[in-house]
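User: Last request for today: this protein with copper (II) ion, please.
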Amino acid sequence: MKILKDKVTKLSFVALLMAVTAAMVYTPTASAHGEKSQAAFMRMRTIHWFDLNWSKEVLAVNDTMTISGKFHVFAGWPETVDKPDISFLNIGIPGPVFIRAGSWIGGQLVPRSVSLELGETYEFKVLLKARRPGDWHVHTMMNVKGGGPIIGPGKWVTVTGSMSSFTNPITTLTGETIDLETYNLSNVYFWHAFWYALGLAWLAYWARKPMFIPRLIAVESGKADSLITPTDKKVALAFGVGAIAIVAMSMSTTNQRYPVTTPLQAGLLRGMKPIEMPATTIAVKVDDATYRVPGRAMQMTLTVTNNGDSAVRLGEFNTAGVRFLDSKVAEDTTGYPDDLLAEEGLTVSDNSPLAPGQTRTIQVTASDAAWEVYRLADLIYDPDSRFAGLLFFYDEAGNRQMVMVDSSLIPTFT
Amino acid sequence: MSASQSAVRSRAEAVKVSRTFDWMITFTLFFVILGGYHVHFMLTGGDWDFWTDWKDRRLWVTVLPIVGITFPAAVQSILWYRYRLPFGAILAVLGLLFGEWVNRYLNFWGWTYFPVNFVFPSNFMPGAIVLDVILMLSNSMVLTAVLGGLAYGLLFYPGNWPIIAPLHVPVEYNGMMMTLADLQGYHYVRTGTPEYIRMVEKGTLRTFGKDVAPVSAFFSGFVSIIIYFLWHFFGRWFGSTAFVKAA
Ligand SMILES: [Cu+2]
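Assistant: Here's the final one, the structure of the complex with copper (II) ion:
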C-alpha cells in the first residue's frame, strides 16, 4: 500500500512539474537585442535607416518622445529575403516598456501593415509614450513578411518614475473616455471567475461521493447504470439548461450595454508616399572593395564624377546604421548613438572639393571597431557577400546628396 | 508485502484508502491534463488565444473550438466509460484555464508587462458543461459527438462575447477608425508579432454579409463533431490498460 501511495505521490509531483513547465515556457519575445546576431547582409542590403533622431534620452512615465528619420528601401534587395510588399513599421523594445502612441510613414498613420517600393526613400516617425521605468535600448525596426524583423540602430533611453502611475486615456466613438491600461479588466475577471466557479461546483458535486475505485468496480461488474441516480439527472439537466440560459442572457445584456461594436480592423495599407528625392548629380562607380580583417577596415576604390554645378566633398559612409564620418566635412549634431558613430572613421585619399565636371578616383577607408562589435565583418561569411551603403556628399553651402553604392566585397586576411 | 495479501484490513480502512486515492488521482489527473492540453492548445490555438486583437468573428471562432474540443473528448472517453464520471470535459477545461491564467498572469503580465485586459484567455466553460451534461444524460458517444460537438462550436462565441464586447467599441485614432482591441495591439508593442501575421477577418465567408460569427460558429461546430470522434478514440487508446504479470 505504502509503495503504491509513494508512487502516486511521486507521479503527482512529476505531473505538477510538467504542468508548471508547460505553463512557464511561453513568454512573448521581450528581447530587442537581435541586432548583432542578424545576418550582416540583411542589415546592409535591405532597409537603410538614416537621419535618425531620438527626441529624448531621459523621460518620465507618461511622457512622450519621438523617433524620426528616413529609410531607404534598397533597390538591390537580396533574393534570399522576401520583398517588402507586406511590411510593418515596428519598434525594437523589450516588450511594452513604451506604448506606441502613433507611427507614420510619409505622414500616413500606419497601425497596420504597408506595402513598400524598392528603391524609394520614406520619411517615418514613431511616437512613444513611456510606460515602464528602466534603461531601454530603443531600436527602429521594420518587419517584412517572409523576411523577418529588420532591426535598425538603437539608442539607450532612460525612463524614470513608476509604472503604477501610467495611464492610457482613450475616448471612444461613443463618447466615453476610458483608461485602456485597465479597461474591461474587472469584467474579464468576473466572467472567468464565474464560469470557473460553475465548473468547480460540478466537480464538487461528483466528488462528494466516492469516485474512482468503487465506480470502476461497479462499471466492471455491469452495474454502471446504478451509478447515476435520478437526482443526478435532474441536477445535470438544470446545470446544462442553466449554462445555456446564462450564455443567452449575458449575451443579450451585453448587446444592450454595448450597442455599438465593430469588427476588428485589418488589411494592407498601400500607396505609402515616398520622399521626392532630388535627382543625383554625382555618379559613383565602385572599382573594387576589400575588407581587411586584421585592421577592421573596409577600403573602396571609387570613381566619382560631379555632374552638378557646385563642388562637392564626401562626408559620410553609412551602412547598417553605422556612420563613418570625415570630421573635416561632416559632423553629427543629433546625439547619434556612440557605438554606431565613427566620427573620424572615414579617410579619403583626396577629399579636396571635386569641381563640377570633374572626375576623380579616390581611396576611401571606413574603419572602426563597429565592424567587429556589430559583426558587420561577418558579411564575408554570408551567402550573399556583397555590401551596400549610402554615401553622403556635401557642397560648400552644406547641401547634401545621397548616393547608393552596391558592390561585392573581397576579404583580405593579412 | 506480497501481492497476494490484501493491503487493507477492514472495510472502513478500504473506504478511507479509496477516498485518499480519489483525491490523489483527481489532483494528478488535473495537472497531467493541464500539461498536455495546455501545450497542445498553445501550439494549435496560439496567438488566437493570446491577444484580443486576434479574437475576430471568423478564424478565432472557427479555430478555437476545433482545437479546443480535443482533450475534453479524450478525457470524457476515459472518465465516463470507465468510471461513469460525467466531468471529463469540465475537468479538462478547468485544467486548461488554470494553466493559461498562470501563464498569462505570470509571464505575459508579470514578466513582459502586457496588460491582462489584452492577453486574457478564451472561455471554454459553457461548451464543456453542455458536453458533459449531454454525455451523462444520453450515455451515447455518437449523440455527444454530434449534439455536443455542435454545441461546443456554437456556444463559443456567445460564451466569450460578454468578455470581449467592450473591446469592440470603435475609436477614432489619428484619423482612422479601429476597435479598442486593435488599439491594444497597436499600443502594446510586440516585436515578435508584427501586424501582418494577425489572421483576422480573413476567409471566404464574405457572402453572408454581417452575420459572419454565426456562420463561422456553425462551421466550427461541424468540424468539432469530427474532431470529437477522433479524440474520443485517442482517449480510449491512451486510457487502455495492459496488465503485466507480477514477477
Ligand atoms: Cu539593442
